[in-house]
């Protein structure tokens, strides 16, 4: 499976169902009262952390997610059916960002987290709610509330206590496989690991999470290779464990490799080098003399970076390394990095279908749009309250202002579908 750790999506909640205009139909009762039911609620958009996921691959091709709309109300006071909520499952460590600004909406960093991103629209009230002593046969009902929509970016930042960093083919995947329950693919060629592998290290019934962070090569901080795609997974780790080939089986200098890794980490985020660093000098089983190991210790231990000689294949020196890591982690605060909310859903404007106001060649002004058409469907213009409602709609929707900008004058004709009237202020 291809590893995907960032996707751009459009999500929409469901629209509320319209209220119903209906009257009782009973034998021998010629003028039954209103019995229009309310519309159903539109579906919410809810994100759930799924512990079985570790990639955003399921979103690779599906880019629009929409909850269902509520059912329209019915006669006999029947409530329209509420729509089902849209459930979107994501891996632990997924961050939801507003796409245009890149601001954080929610950091889904808890194992059992459930987060409602968008509320569905409320159902409209049926005409039974509008009956009064003076208006006993209301011929209008409330439309359902519009849905909300937002374009978002999902970004996965793996959550691990220890991050393994180092050049390809130095034995990171092998080390992870022998010290944890992870089962990474291992082969003797470069760029074997294409996604961060996480495993749990068990120490006397306790333990910590360790991750193999691939893709770090020279120029990674500038986006070369898989750099940017994987460097961000280091940000949540508490300890950096440099893995180097101390035997230089491929002719690489382990000291130079670590310096290059430190440079790339610093260029990406200077805060990363403030984390505790440890060096695992791997492949000591292939080391014929200790000069390289001594040089490694002499260079870095005076900087406070402890060096542990190990052989992941022969399983040598691993206990000392793991107990040292465990001790460091136990002395550190237990919470991990959580990205604070920067964007709030209340800032989203409700999407509105456009209302088109135009002046025809014969001088007649026309107003069109599905919202206008729905308004006419549930408004009784022969009733005083209905007519006032109609006037308020024209004003609040900016239709009157738009007509004036087109040069309308008193006495001019305005046509809204089947309705035609003369304009007066």
Automatic annotation (TrEMBL):
<dbReference type="InterPro" id="IPR006073">
    <property type="entry name" value="GTP-bd"/>
</dbReference>
<dbReference type="GO" id="GO:0005525">
    <property type="term" value="F:GTP binding"/>
</dbReference>
<feature type="domain" description="Obg">
    <location>
        <begin position="1"/>
        <end position="159"/>
    </location>
</feature>
<dbReference type="InterPro" id="IPR036346">
    <property type="entry name" value="GTP-bd_prot_GTP1/OBG_C_sf"/>
</dbReference>
<protein>
    <recommendedName>
        <fullName>GTPase Obg</fullName>
        <ecNumber>3.6.5.-</ecNumber>
    </recommendedName>
</protein>
<feature type="binding site">
    <location>
        <position position="173"/>
    </location>
    <ligand>
        <name>Mg(2+)</name>
    </ligand>
</feature>
<comment type="subunit">
    <text>Monomer.</text>
</comment>
<feature type="domain" description="OCT">
    <location>
        <begin position="347"/>
        <end position="425"/>
    </location>
</feature>
<keyword id="KW-0378">Hydrolase</keyword>
<feature type="binding site">
    <location>
        <begin position="311"/>
        <end position="313"/>
    </location>
    <ligand>
        <name>GTP</name>
    </ligand>
</feature>
<dbReference type="InterPro" id="IPR006169">
    <property type="entry name" value="GTP1_OBG_dom"/>
</dbReference>
<dbReference type="GO" id="GO:0005737">
    <property type="term" value="C:cytoplasm"/>
</dbReference>
<dbReference type="InterPro" id="IPR015349">
    <property type="entry name" value="OCT_dom"/>
</dbReference>
<keyword id="KW-0460">Magnesium</keyword>
<dbReference type="GO" id="GO:0003924">
    <property type="term" value="F:GTPase activity"/>
</dbReference>
<dbReference type="GO" id="GO:0000287">
    <property type="term" value="F:magnesium ion binding"/>
</dbReference>
<keyword id="KW-0547">Nucleotide-binding</keyword>
<dbReference type="GO" id="GO:0042254">
    <property type="term" value="P:ribosome biogenesis"/>
</dbReference>
<dbReference type="InterPro" id="IPR031167">
    <property type="entry name" value="G_OBG"/>
</dbReference>
<keyword id="KW-0963">Cytoplasm</keyword>
<dbReference type="InterPro" id="IPR045086">
    <property type="entry name" value="OBG_GTPase"/>
</dbReference>
<feature type="binding site">
    <location>
        <begin position="166"/>
        <end position="173"/>
    </location>
    <ligand>
        <name>GTP</name>
    </ligand>
</feature>
<dbReference type="Pfam" id="PF09269">
    <property type="entry name" value="DUF1967"/>
</dbReference>
<dbReference type="InterPro" id="IPR006074">
    <property type="entry name" value="GTP1-OBG_CS"/>
</dbReference>
<dbReference type="InterPro" id="IPR036726">
    <property type="entry name" value="GTP1_OBG_dom_sf"/>
</dbReference>
<keyword id="KW-0479">Metal-binding</keyword>
<comment type="similarity">
    <text>Belongs to the TRAFAC class OBG-HflX-like GTPase superfamily. OBG GTPase family.</text>
</comment>
<feature type="binding site">
    <location>
        <begin position="191"/>
        <end position="195"/>
    </location>
    <ligand>
        <name>GTP</name>
    </ligand>
</feature>
<dbReference type="Pfam" id="PF01926">
    <property type="entry name" value="MMR_HSR1"/>
</dbReference>
<keyword id="KW-0342">GTP-binding</keyword>
<feature type="binding site">
    <location>
        <begin position="282"/>
        <end position="285"/>
    </location>
    <ligand>
        <name>GTP</name>
    </ligand>
</feature>
<feature type="binding site">
    <location>
        <position position="193"/>
    </location>
    <ligand>
        <name>Mg(2+)</name>
    </ligand>
</feature>
<feature type="binding site">
    <location>
        <begin position="212"/>
        <end position="215"/>
    </location>
    <ligand>
        <name>GTP</name>
    </ligand>
</feature>
<dbReference type="Pfam" id="PF01018">
    <property type="entry name" value="GTP1_OBG"/>
</dbReference>
<feature type="domain" description="OBG-type G">
    <location>
        <begin position="160"/>
        <end position="330"/>
    </location>
</feature>
<dbReference type="InterPro" id="IPR014100">
    <property type="entry name" value="GTP-bd_Obg/CgtA"/>
</dbReference>
<comment type="function">
    <text>An essential GTPase which binds GTP, GDP and possibly (p)ppGpp with moderate affinity, with high nucleotide exchange rates and a fairly low GTP hydrolysis rate. Plays a role in control of the cell cycle, stress response, ribosome biogenesis and in those bacteria that undergo differentiation, in morphogenesis control.</text>
</comment>
<dbReference type="InterPro" id="IPR027417">
    <property type="entry name" value="P-loop_NTPase"/>
</dbReference>
